[in-house]
Amino acid sequence: MSRTPLQPRSEPAAPPKRARSVMGRLSALQGRSSRTHNVVVLLLFVLLAALPAVSDSRSLFILLTQVFILAVFAMSYDLLLGFTGIVSFGHAMFFGLGAYSTGLFLSRFEATLPMLLLSVIAGMALAAALSYLVGVLSLRLKSHFYAMLTLAFAGLLLVAAEKWRSLTKGSDGFTFAIPEPLKDRATLYLVCLCTLAAVYVALRRFTRSPLGSVLQAIRENEQRTESLGYRIVPYKIAASVVAGAAASISGSLYVLTLRFVNTTVFSMDMTLNALLMTIIGGVGTLYGAVIGAAVIEWAHQLLTDLAGVHPIFERWIIFFGLLYIVVVLVFPSGIAGTCASWLSSMRRRRQPEDPEEERP
Amino acid sequence: MNSLLNLIVNGLATGMLVFLLAAGLTLIFGLMSVLNFAHGGLFAWGAYGGVWLYGLTGSFAAALAGAVVIGMLLGWVMERVVIRPVYGNHVQQILVTLGAMLVLSELLKVVFTPNPLKAETPAWLSGSWDAGGVILIKYRLFIILVGALVYIGLTLLLRRTRIGLIVRAGVANPDMVQALGINIRLVFTLVFMFGAGLAAFGGALLAPYSGVVFSEMGMQFAILAFIVVVIGGMGSIQGSALASLLVGLSGALMAYYVPDLSLAANMLLMVLVLLVRPSGLFGAKGGGA
């Protein structure tokens, strides 16, 4: 049975004798698939890192840099939605905090690398504090409350950024200088790629840690986890704090590539980006979020180019919105999950005796 | 004195509009455990529909009625196509209603152009009365009157009629109502359409009040409505009514005295309620994990 976090969870407990053998097979399989995973990820990383040596296409760099940054954002969202089963409609607030933190530090002080690092850390701390606050307020209630509260808080931050003009210059925004070494497109590209890789590895470690297993247990069945003796609220808060801090990193990188920040970083569209990428790419896998970021960014560019052909393509959100509804209703595990289950069912048909039915 | 009274009228009028949105939201949640994140989209469709029909027919009553019909039709389609397949799964529901919101508000831009539309106030409701030195704007009083009528009508409908009895029983325990031989799915659909109609009605009423309609206004009002249902308690009409007036008044007063903090004041109110009484002022449902 392929477990997808969006499907109702009502599978009966497996009988104990079978359970042990399944667990044994599962861990063996996890070892094998984890090795394949590592090889694929490493290969991809090397290929992408070698890109500046073979190509200097400006538009390709810009597109890929954007994909890397949004992939970090989408992965942080996946930690909430895919691994813990929490729905947030205000993820943009953490992104925006990182963005403004970096923008303000680099415009008010000297634009150097240590200052950039300091601004990223400050953004992460702010985002972590805010997500702690929101989590404490609403995570002990039904899932609707977190969604509503994050939506309202993101709305509040958007208004605050518009009104506090002495600090943010409102929706006009402000430009700032970036550290000298990052002015080269290829360097910035590599920095974003390395950040993506680092965040990916860190979040993968996090989700596979004992804490991460408890989070997934909460996603699968909150009552059962609680009755096993875990206090679920602190675990959920931990997930939301880590997700907030990770989202803030992507916000910092985002404005670094633009050398400009305005209130759009707090907008609903930013949250929708994370939602669409995570849902369409596939929840609960991390790499699904990366796939989603690539697909959405690429499709976005394609549809924007098509806007010259027919004005309906200017309203590209409609296509994503419809696609999103279809994915939630019909393919709740997204591109990554659906492909994985196709692959495993194909493999099963070829080797009926192979115990491949248990995909991690 | 004059300005204070005007602020109170403004606050009550906004509160009534938010109530129209929150009433549907809270009923739908109480009955079906669905929190409809697309409610603001229905509100915006009501506003655009009302403006369009008013321009077409020249009759404000026809515009309001038409907006309600548009809202109910959209609600029917939504309930059938996107919400019915995911009953019982909260995460999927929350996600799918947000998707519907996205499509509804983008569709507005396709149908009515992305630019804001100007909304006219009908002649018999424009202008103001001068009551002993206090100037009262007619249209705002009209909204308050209509809102109060809707509240009374809704309460009577729920308390005194058979369908109201079924709905109240459904809020208490939908499975038991089903077991008693009532087609609860049909009740769900009807209540959803009713809530959608109320939201669209609120949108159509808002349009002449704000003078202009734009697609993002759905989300702005939806956020207020969410704050209201949290404060008032999910599933409670009385709670929503009280909280709407509270939110409307505090918004209007803050907007006058400390304009930068008007949304923050309402958020603070919500945070306070969440800390002290997570199930809301009147809520029976929604508290606890």
Automatic annotation (TrEMBL), chain B:
Any GO BP: amino acid transport
Key word Protease present: no
Xref: Pfam families: BPD_transp_2
Keyword line: Amino-acid transport, Cell membrane, Membrane, Transmembrane, Transmembrane helix, Transport
Localization of this protein: Cell membrane
Transmembrane intervals: 7-31, 51-74, 94-112, 132-158, 186-207, 213-234
Topology class, membrane: Multi-pass membrane protein
InterPro entries: ABC_transp_permease (IPR001851), BCAA_transport_permease (IPR052157)
Keyword Electron transport part of the UniProt annotation: no
Family: Belongs to the binding-protein-dependent transport system permease family. LivHM subfamily.
Protein name per its UniProtKB record: High-affinity branched-chain amino acid transport system permease protein LivH
